[in-house]
Amino acid sequence: MILRSLIFALLLLTGSVFAAPSAELWPVWQAHDESNQQALDHQPWDELLGRYLQINEGGINRFDYRAVTAADRAQLKGYLQGLQQVTVSKLSRAAQRAYWINLYNATTVTVVLEHYPVESILNIDISPGLFSNGPWGKKLLKIEGQEVSLDDIEHRILRPIWRDPRLHYALNCASLGCPNLQPVAFTRESSKRLLDAAALAFINHPRGAEVVDGKLVVSSIYDWFEADFGDSDAGVIKHLRRYAQPPLKEALRGVEEVDDHQYEWGVNAMR
After folding, report:
1. Is residue 220 located within the same domain as residue 180?
2. Rounded alpha-carbon distances, angstroms, from residue 109 to 42, 62, 65, 212, 230
3. Same structural domain for residues 216 and 183?
4. 99-114: string of b/e by CB count within 10 Å (b at 16+)?
5. Cα-based distances in Å from 62 to 29, 220, 266, 270
6. In terms of residue numbers, what domain contains 35?
7. What are the tens digits of pLDDT across the range 79-93?
8. Mind listing the pLDDT tens digit for each residue in 169-202?
9. Nearest Cα residue to 161 out of 106, 224, 91, 111
10. Keyword Transferase on this protein (predicted)?
11. Do the domain assignments include residue 104?
């Protein structure tokens, strides 16, 4: 434990505390059925978000982990158990996307609740491997007989199948630097709208992108996942301009490179 703490401190000092896995398809999850119009019930997750997620005036949504009751913990557990009984391969692509996003976010909240109080999700050291931090590598779920981790959902399913950079704004890692946990559950019908709204909100918040003294500073997300945003500074800036509103839109005029990255790993709990 002491060695692990020393390694973690060293990584923080060197700025190498987090490296994103590449998108590598898990072929078994390619199966889908567009004739299936089944709509999954995400109401339990929707209700929990309504009770415990605060839409913060500062632009960062916070979850009241401390206030979650035993009954609501049981509701969350039941929701996750229900999702794990779904035959995902028989769903339509739209239903699958909402399924995986909600499963990822609800599982993340569950992990934080199980270890709360905690200053950062990086301190939840349950992933396998000496140099691993956080919960992302642990097989926390079992779906269609397959053991699945949070990393699997993000990097082996969502990213390689949908190839949509907006997914980075939908998945929440319980950190202040992360795009907001959305206040409602994703559904087959609402996902496109929610993805656009999430992208718009994050990019136009200082933790997403800001120009300071002519220098563009962006979230480290655009560094870790640069391959998803055009694989270059130019690609990242083009993506930002697509969603930028005044004053960011004006500030980006003439900007041709990213000068720095930033990220805040503190947990997105209520103060």
Report:
1. no
2. 15, 11, 8, 34, 31
3. no
4. bbbbbbbbbbbbbbbe
5. 32, 20, 11, 5
6. 21-188
7. 999 999 999 999 999
8. 999 999 999 999 999 999 999 999 999 999 999 9
9. 91
10. no
11. yes
